[in-house]
Amino acid sequence: MSHIVPSRIPVGVASYSFPFSCGWAKRDGRPTVSQPIRSAELIALAVEHGLSGIEIPLTGMLPDLSNSAIDQLREALAAAGLGLIVDTGIVDVATLREQMPAIARAGAKVFRATLSSILEGARAELPGGWDAYLEEMRRRIIELRPLLEEYDLILALENHQDATSDDLIALCQAGGERVGITFDVVNPLAVGEEPFAFARKIGSLIRNVHIKDYQIYPTESGFRLVRAAIGQGVIDWAAMLELLREVTPDATYHIELAALYGRHVRLLEDDWWNGYPPRDARELIPTLRFAARHARPADEPWQTPWERDAPDQEVELYERGQFEYSVEHLRSILKTGD
Predict the structure, then answer these.
(1) For the chain, what are the domain ranges?
(2) How many CB atoms lie within 10 A of CB 38?
(3) 163-196: per-residue pLDDT in tens?
(4) Count of beta carbons in the 10 Å neighbourhood of residue 32
(5) From CA 241, how far away is CA 237, in angstroms rounded?
(6) Other C-beta atoms within 10 Å of 258: how many?
(7) CATH class of 12-337
(8) What is the pLDDT of residues 19-66, one digit of tens each?
(9) CA 269 to CA 272: how far, in whole Å?
């Protein structure tokens, strides 16, 4: 019996939905996945589920960055009718100078980069302070402007649990029209901002959207964010997608379920705030209200299969099950909105 391919929806899939199945999540002493997902498998998965594109790092998802490997990727995407967003690491001029030719050759128009490896909004731990670090990022972004022009690319900086809306707006202003934002929808919570307010504020600067969700578990220090399927977390996705279509109608969307371990945001600890400028306490109220409204019982088990050291097969099924649920939830919303 032939497999019926579902109708396509304007949402792609990011490889970081599958950190275990892609072989990136590793434990000491545990071998990596014997057959990790690579670009060909992700393309097949997108086609199977009626998605519109993929988001991947070229390094690690392809055998190499040779012209032949890049051309094979571009041809495979074209044959499948899929778009491409390329993931890169922390903004680094030398690295991006090397990668931009491959990114453009692959057919991508937008690539995503992060500002730091900071998670949980823990900016106070950064040596030298966040302001000095941000100034260095600004300098690098300005230096990249001629390369972005040369290769006709847009750099989309992600709010990777480190940057506030003000930080991102300032960097986009410094970078010019070829610098925008990859909006990770729930990461604003990690810097004490409410997701819907964050989206409205950065608005038309959004070029790419990471469709991700969390459950919230309260702690004495703040709250813990734990991976959830789309439709099983804290975001009202019908309302969020409607807002995003209003403020950034041309952005791309990719499911990016991400981390296999909880993120502990300690915004109720004094030291946590040492990484931030003074803020009117009233500005924090929407975030605290949002967290309180969606909080799970504090004593409810929250560890993912990965954190429980479950067998590999259980972790793989957990990733795949959340992805499939997410696709169907988004499909139901988008059909309703037609």
Answers:
(1) 12-337
(2) 16
(3) 999 999 999 999 999 999 999 999 999 999 999 9
(4) 12
(5) 6
(6) 19
(7) alpha beta
(8) 999 998 887 766 568 889 999 999 999 999 999 999 999 998 999 999
(9) 6
